[in-house]
Amino acid sequence: MINPIKIAVDAMGGDNSPEKTLNGIKIHNSYSNNVFYNIFGNGNLIEPILKKSKISPENYNIFHTDKFIKDSDSPLSAAKKGKDTSMWLSIESLKKNDSDAIVSAGNTGALFVIAKLNLKMIEKIEKPALSALWPNKKGMNIVLDLGANIECNEKNLIDFSFMGSALYKSLFDNDDAKVALLNIGSEELKGNNIIKNTYQLLNENKNSLFEFKGYIEGNHIMDGEVNVIVTDGFTGNVALKTAEGTANFITSELRQALNSSLLGKLSAFLNIRNLKKFKNKLDPRLYNGAILLGLDKPVIKSHGSTDEIGFANSLKVCEKIIKGKLIEKIKKNII
Total structural domains in the chain? Predict the structure, then answer.
């Protein structure tokens, strides 16, 4: 039998935990084979929920601690709390090679700091990047950096291109990675010096991992002509929050319009299948699971406010990148 994938789960992070995280494990376990969960958190709360879920005890271990990091903790105070918390212990299990990856819905800043304290950077990479999945017309985008680095130089953006492409190939092995730099225009002379220099370097240095497609503007992110979009953390985070806000606005307005009159309700009933497809396309839970790239072990951040369906999807992303040998792909291709 092939050795199972071992996922470390910080069961105490995020809203409505540990119920949410454990129910997410239950959902993921129902459709995944050969995955083992190392669960870190308050065993007195965790065990009764797992017993109700009827997950086989052969599929998990519980590592008890009654200490956890709060969303209100600063990264520094979280690191000082550190070594007995569920987040620290789950990341430490990666360091000790007891787990293959870690998933947490907890404090984002604390997760990054504790991960960097415990894990090594991949050789030749200067800065980690936060990446995530965004839907497009033809499938899926990888977008990075989404907030780990406010300022980036040319080397950082080139590293992000390779790491984002390695992630894309790990998740979608049959598709080609196509990289573009997020910019204020598509013309070669647009943008600041760092963007323009990165463009020249990527354009001159061909590689087997991805095809460089030049610049992309924010209004074309969803077109699907490229699938790895690279930017600095400041710009990426603004783009992410704008996209999330726009999606919420559209779904809220559509729901209100369809429920405001008898004609709207009838239209909704007649178009229920198409509306369901539309809703799923914009459902953030189905794309949950941001990845901190650049460390020598996979660290996955689940959105703190997501529910068990979203958390299950972050576990699914985790499973895919382990099977897709993400870290090996980055090490092989980074320059």
Answer: 2
